[in-house]
Amino acid sequence: MKFGVVQFPGSCDDEDALHACARVGDAELLWHGERDLRGVDVVVVPGGFSYGDYLRVGAIARFSPLMEAVIEFAEGGGPTLGICNGFQVLCEAGLLPGALLPNAGVRFLCRQVDCEVVNTDTPFTRGLKREEILSMPVKHTTGRYYAPAEELAVMEQHGQVVLRYAGANPNGSSNDIAGVSNRDGNVFGLMPHLEHAVDPIHHSEDGLKLLVSAAGMVTGV
Amino acid sequence: MSEIALTPTPNPPGVEQAVALGLTRDEYALVTEKMGREPNEVELAMFSLLWSEHCSYKHSKKLLRTLPTVGPRVVMGPGENAGAVDIGDGWTIAFKVESHNHPSAVEPFQGAATGVGGILRDIFAIGARPIAVLDSLRFGEPDSERTRYLLDRAVAGIGHYGNSVGVANIGGEVYFEAPYETNCLVNAMALGLARRDDMIRSAAAGLGNVVILFGASTGRDGIGGASVLASAELGDEDESKRPTVQVGDPFAENKLIRCSLELLEKGLLVSLQDLGAAGLTSSASEMASAGAVGIDLDVGKVPLREADMAPFEIMVSESQERMLCVATPERVAEVLAVCAKWEVHGTAIGEVTDTRTMRILRDGEIVGEVPVEALVDDCPLYDLAPEKPSAPLYPAPRATIAADLPVRDTLLALLASPNVASRRPLFEQYDCLVGGRTARRPEESDAAVLAMPTGGAIGVSIDGSGRRVAIDPYHGTIEVVLECAANLACVGAEPLGLTNCLNFGNPEKPHIAWQLTESIRGLGDACRALGVPVVGGNVSLYNEGADGPIYPTPVIGMVGDIPDPLGGSPSGFVREGDAVGFAGWNTMPSLHGSELAKLRGEALPDALPETDVAHVTTVLAAIREAVRAGDLSSCHDVAEGGWLVAMAEACILGGLGADLGSESSVALTDEILFGEQPGGFIVSGSAETLARLGEKIPLDVFGTVGGDALVLGGDSWSLDELREAHGALAPLFP
């Protein structure tokens, strides 16, 4: 199976995401100016500051030529993962509900956090257990998940809240939300950087579990 | 570049204009002599920058030449954009520290941000992929509103640039002392990783080769930054200098890095150089000087932000995020295609000539013509007139605690002192992880650890001192180097090389000249004792405000080799039941120049106790070997605040208490508990392994890790109250 990692100008964690994916399957970078997803099985939109993010975060990236292909892929049921800036881009593209707002503390925050797995019925969490705790770092200025109360209620009802911060909520997200999916579960966005929790030097390899889940779904394991 | 017509220089701007631009009258006379005529506006602008202290090192070069710069692991030494050391298997680490003090004092956010951007360009200019930054900061006391503003904005600027450009900020240091109130210090260090064979130098070569500018377009920002801002004292009219501060764009830098690395990977370049201080002028002429060639530049081809810029403005603009490269004519199309992919405005603006002259053209007309040698090599170098001050240069610090405070309260006061308190509120604003190499994060170990493609790792530390160097520039500077090496020892790193940034006042004043001379003498002696070469650095002079000079502040960045990326010891206690030991000291420390003396408001003494450098070197080697052997559960170096503060930090960072016994055989004097000197470590581990270390170096085992309190003599501190005191900086970042 093959992961495709989107590369925008201003992406920062693109190569880290690529290396993380390459521990689990084949992986290649997908350039923002192209429209071809090269037959990848899972699309990863990585972290960083796409196009500088001088406008609202993710607002420009979602108009890139490649994103047209990604939107089509995701709407067709393809497993699509957005990490941090990628999560913001997927929200801007309308593939995920809600939006990411500036942190409650307003400043950039880099910190290892614990997340609780809430829903295991997505391609990315199918190999995990409910209430399992994953240790991964967050690093962002704009990570406070927000959706209107009625929409949050609907999301909770449909199991679209996939990950919740366990313990302290680092950014003031509604309902302690760290990651959400679309109604079908195939599009998943999270603020924690799973690609920085894949090696013994990272003090946690929990991020790999999410990628292994997605790969397993593709290969039927 | 044919069809050129030499225009004579009517109306030379003259000596008064030269003085206004920072040259002396004698220097102007020398310029005229070298030129054979008076310089025109463009030429004078070029000389004023390249002959500024910032570019020419004219007051420090003779002293810097005394430093040891060679060693078996040195790949690039001083003179290139950055130094580099060999880490094995064909890999090298490039690194350098540089100041951005005056811009940060005038506009802290952009000043600090562009400091990071500038040092990164030095790294990828030699073909290394930037992998980490560290920073060293100095401000006035945080009870001043101005200090809080500078601190908040400088930290935000460093974070903004580093986080957005995608390079991990893995460590740093910050201290607060009154003499930095007007003239704060912002030093940034960067590291890069390169295959030794892929590195590139800046020397232009190849007659007829094409000079290509790429990156951001050129505007009026930063004009005169090197001469007006960086090479003069700060004064009351600094607001008016704001236009000399550049504005950074980390997104542009991210693209510039990736574009440069792709150009190098494809083998398209002959040479590469960044545009830093003095912009196109210094970049192009240094390339020409290094290659013993000439360069013709057509400023009419430079992409501009404002169409009506004069040639001299284009030549001296310090607009950020620009690079200059040389390529053979047949490669130009490919170079420009890579530039187009990354949207960085690649433009051929000149060519390499055999004239040994920098010729500046605009639309076919020569607007400036200067011999390269005169510009780059002929700036006069000055001898300093050092004189040890007979009276103290600095007032005593303001007392914040009583001299007879009990030990219990003294420890809490020290932990809450701005110079000791946890830096977490600062470093959590920086991405320390991007790149995936960070094996030891801030506050995890005494030095940062980055995993390397060799399978090993490097340890990195940046350290500086101000107050102790002000007391005794020679011994104070030795202590800084030893402190840096001590941090590396805690993660099992053997030093490979160091870079330095020497932040001092006005060297034309005899007392500052004495500080600088003594400090560099100490730096050289410490490097020789440790066997660590200086591979690069930067000098920042004229750091003075209306209320006098800063504390002399040499900042040292050191890189060391570690066999195992998972091997370094953490700073904090790890395991209940471990024995706690204190290793290293063979003499009693003194309170002279200590953090406690500062809190008590004691005047600076006129000397520090002499350091037994040979002994400390032995201790560092033994600690390093013990860490590498996995003998130590934790290892933390004793620094500001002394022994008891380091012990409390080991408790806080590990989340474990320590029982040091309620009975003590020695009198627990303030000197023992809070005195400072190099070469002391708090270690923990099994009793047997500590005993083994004790056979090599002085070591006292006197307690056990465990519980939720630090217990010593009749005193006890709960972990919670230690944490609360140590968290004293948090309110500065609400």
Account of the protein in words:
The complex is a heterodimer of chains A (about 220) and B (about 725). Chain A is an alpha/beta fold and about 220 residues long. Chain A has five helices and eleven strands, in the order E-H-E-E-H-E-H-E-E-E-E-H-E-E-E-H. Chain A has helices at about 15-20, 65-75, 85-90, 150-155, 205-220, and strands spanning about 1-5, 25-30, 40-45, 80-85, 100, 110-115, 135-140, 145, 160-165, 175-180, 185-190. In chain A, strands 2-1-3-4-11-10-9-6-7 form a nine-stranded mixed sheet, with helices on both faces. A two-stranded antiparallel ribbon of chain A has the order 5-8. The longest helix of chain A has 14 residues, at about 205-220. The relative contact order of chain A is 0.18. The longest helix of chain B has 21 residues, at about 145-165. The N and C termini of chain B lie far apart (about 60 Å). With about 725 residues, chain B is an alpha+beta fold. Chain B contains 25 helices and 29 strands. Among the domains of chain B are: about 70-375, PurM-like C-terminal domain (Phosphoribosyl-aminoimidazole Synthetase, Chain A, domain 2); about 570-734, PurM-like C-terminal domain (Phosphoribosyl-aminoimidazole Synthetase, Chain A, domain 2, Alpha-Beta Complex), CATH 3.90.650. Chain B has an eight-stranded mixed sheet with strand order 1-14-13-10-12-8-11-9. A seven-stranded mixed sheet of chain B has the order 24-26-23-27-25-28-29, sandwiched between helices. Classes of the chains: A alpha/beta (about 220), B alpha+beta (about 725). The interface between A and B is medium-sized, with 31 and 32 residues.
